[in-house]
Design brief:
Layout lengths: L11 E6 L5 H13 L3 E6 L9 H8 L17 H8 L2 E7 L1 H8 L6 H7 L8 E5 L3 H5 L1 H12 L3 E2 L3 E4 L5 E5 L3 H12 L1
Parallel strand pairs: 1-2, 1-3, 3-4, 4-5
Antiparallel strand pairs: 6-7
Helix pairs in contact: 1-2, 3-5, 4-7
Amino acid sequence: MANLPSKLKGKTILIGVTGGIACYKVADLVSKLVQSEAHVNVVMTKAATQFITPLTFASLTGNAVFDSQWTFVDQHDPQHVKLARSADVMLVAPCTMDMLAKLAHGMTDDPLSLVISAIDRNQTPVLLAPSMNATMLAQPSTVRNSKQLQDDGFIFVAPEEGWQACKTIGCGRLPELDALVTALEAVIS
């Protein structure tokens, strides 16, 4: 990434991380966004913390990571509401099959889905970057949930074709960092 994303300078970007193997790539994205002088907050599911630690994102952003709806990181305010209101844009990457299902059905039993539920998508765009095995991506429930979420106003960043962690080739890879940054810039401008 030769040029840092200047359209994102000074913007508050929420990054949601779910429990997919591709979440290790998100650390590089967060670093690039911080280098572009964006203010970045990270929200993680418990499953995401099995792949990459909250300390990684806290170190990169200089901000506490919201990884439990039961722990206060900023006084005793309802943190999910505060984070939701502060964001100019949100990106969930990777967005797993599980998270797509939760969002499509209004479930808020983890910190990430809870924050997303508090975002007014008429004011703040929420981008979803699905990333999963090609078979999981093609499941009727995933297709159905994705359509419902698009109808609900979520913006999708299409997964890419290529080598997957399950040692197959197919659609479902997390888009490259440039594609994610371009998608963020497009909804900010």
